[in-house]
Request: fold
Amino acid sequence: MKKLYQQTIVKHVIHPLTRFVGQQKSGSIVLGGSVLLAIVLANTAFSEAYFHFFEQRIGIAFNDRLYFNHSLHHWINDGLMSVFFFVVGLELKHEFIGGELSNIRQTILPIGAAIGGMIVPALLYLAFNHGAVSASGWGIPMATDIAFALGVLYLLGDRVPIAAKVFLTTLAVVDDLGAVVIIALFYTSEISFGNLGVGLLLLTVMFAANKSGVKNLLFYGIVGIGGVWTMFLLSGVHATIAAVLAAFMIPAEATLSEPAFMKKMCRQAADFRNTKGNDVRTLEEEQLHLLKEMQTTARLAVPPSQSLEHYLAPIVTFGIMPVFALANAGVSFDSVDFSTLWASSTMWGVFVGLLLGKSVGIIGVSLLLTRMGWAQFPSELTLRRLVGISFLAAIGFTMSMFISTLAFESAQLLLEAKIAIFGASVVGGLIGFLLLKR
Reply:
């Protein structure tokens, strides 16, 4: 009976859950569910409790003094999102070493399109908000949410050729890099150069350790989190930048090369085959010892950066990003004055910047590069597909929402920006989906 119960759990719970987590679109589904839940909580009887929960303050008390005393909302945006940006840094490093960004000649088109898709939205936003207090939000419509955009793309399955998927992936990666640079240069508070100097010194220690062949992830964790991230947090430079820089310091070379791994693993497998076994379920001591050696060999063959990326990616996708959405996507429509909203330059700047700025920038620069002969379209990337992809790039949810929290202290401006991000992301996603589906 117990065995039957276990088999039922595995068949109807564990296997379906494993398949769901392994699908490309699953992250966007979970993220979308978190957005809807946040909106429901913000507009029902739970509204007061929902907003109060994220206003609770958490800090460290020592000698009757409080250190790092911030709201839960602040810890999510500066703490948990640092893990998100750390994974972004690992992915960027991987792309530069052996991914889509390793051969610049082959990526001129998506890189140029990404740059156009950042510049035009910012200019359109400033056209609506030039000289106003809200002008600081120019970075909001520049960002693309890679999880949502790729989630929609993968919902279409084989209708979209691999060339289009690679184009959008490369564009989104470059877009992420641009967002990191913008946050670093334009969305930092007053800088404490003493703390920043210590942070940079510890970053240099990580770099030197990498070049010296140190592969111990515990060392990089202690120096990166306890040192670099903390010093950047105290310096005024946004802590997520420390996460990206620390990610670039993680070694991307394995302790064992591929030929050495194959040679050692073949020898160990041969030893295991020649070891005398038994007729019961448990292993002999020698077999167990050999299997542990094989596990160690396999672990040493994986570069530390890829090992971390593989481990943290599902945590970010199914944990950190949904929590961020839950903490930031709650918009109470009771507090929205729609007559004021309709006349809001912030709302229109973000909405038009994301929805039209992205598409105009991506399509315009792509056509310009091909006309100049500097790049060419892959055979499967038709103009219709390019237009569809450009509208998917208007889905700016996570990054746009994050930059809006840095750009605005005013609750009203933040509310207007959030509504515009929702609107542009939904409309852009639908248009892109329908164009690519055909």
